[in-house]
Amino acid sequence: MRVAPGALAAVLVAICSASNALADNPANPPASACDRLAASPEDATRPAGTVGIDDNLIDAAQAVPACWAALAASPNDPRLAYQLARALEKAGVEGEPSDLYRKAAEAGHPAAMTVLGDLYESGDGIPKDDAEAVRWYRNAADAGFARAMTSLGAMFANGLGAPKDLVEAARWFRKGADAGDSQAMTRLGVMFANGWGVAKDGAEATRWYRKAAQAGDASAMTSLGLIYANGIEAPKDETEALRWFRRAAEAGDAAGMNDLAVMHESGAGGLSKDEAEAMRWYRKAAEAGNAAGMATLALSYETGAGGTPKDAAQALLWYRKAAALGEERAIAALKRLSPDAKSP
């Protein structure tokens, strides 16, 4: 087992302290502690009454020893193997989580099957293998796991690990959406908006974007904002557009951040024009990976717009980042500023 720098000592200390705590409270079985500390909200096999905890909120110092103890007591329980893998990942342990995910997946645990598919798709900790990713996504999807349905649809949509098939992609997105996965709802909306694998239907696209946005999907919030901003499939309503762009931005969607910046810059949706606030959101969008935000931030460094201090080096840096993502304004700016430079 390999452990990321600094993680091993913390894990060992935690194992000792948590073991003592379990010994002091024999009425609390190790499995109960593991469930409380590392169960996933999307795992339908978690015990009734267990809410589950998101990956980034796991307290590895407590969860790792609790789940080690639980799995030692019930070595063939795939849920406990899956939860220990989650805790070890949060602790920075390398190698062992993928082995535990595989153990749980091979024992038929749908959430573990999906994570194993993720690992094969990304090549994180195991050799990248899109065909294996499709196999594990399909196993989990056939077992009723909604997120796996969405991931399988994406593989068909992109022709990864299987021939590109937009009809099959749309079928799996619909299954995922019907099963409650908000990302599947958004992707199904995209399919209807573009006529990919289904008949083009703007009203149906809007319906799925709304369902996804109401379920918390940030990219769907941005799409819904654009529908109101442009008066597509809904009456034009800048106030409603602003509301959805703000929700998307605050939920972390980079495109939503950029669109919110545009609203502040133009004074749309009942806002007063505010270049400083616009630049704040353009910067956040750029730092979150939005190409349009990068190009606008670069322009502000070039010209001093929005109160940004002129900085030629920063302007070139952000133009290059945006151009690498295909942003046409940035590509043109680089040709203008560095006419001898090759396009990215």
Q: Which keywords apply here?
A:
344 residues; mainly alpha; two-stranded antiparallel sheet; 2 strands; 1% strand; globular
Reading the helices and strands in chain order gives EHHHHEHHHHHHHHHHHHHH
Structural class: mainly alpha
Straight-line N-to-C gap = 40 Å
**How would a crystallographer describe the biggest sheet?**
2 strands, antiparallel
What integer is the average pLDDT? 91
What does this structure look like?
With 344 residues, the protein is mainly α. The protein has a domain at 1-98. The chain has 18 helices and two strands. The chain has helices at 7-24, 30-38, 60-73, 78-91, 96-106, 110-122, 130-142, 146-158, 166-178, 182-194, 202-214, 218-230, 238-250, 254-266, 275-287, 291-303, 312-324, 328-337, and strands at residues 2-3, 93-94. A two-stranded antiparallel ribbon has the order 1-2. Helix 10 (182-194) runs antiparallel to helix 11 (202-214) and helix 15 (275-287) packs across helix 16 (291-303). It is globular, with a radius of gyration of 24 Å. The two termini are 40 Å apart.
Q: How would you summarize the topology of this molecule?
A:
Elements lengths: L1 E2 L3 H18 L5 H9 L21 H14 L4 H14 L1 E2 L1 H11 L3 H13 L7 H13 L3 H13 L7 H13 L3 H13 L7 H13 L3 H13 L7 H13 L3 H13 L8 H13 L3 H13 L8 H13 L3 H10 L7
Antiparallel strand pairs: 1-2
Summarize the structure.
With 344 residues, the chain is mainly alpha-helical. Helices cover 67% and strands 1% of the residues.
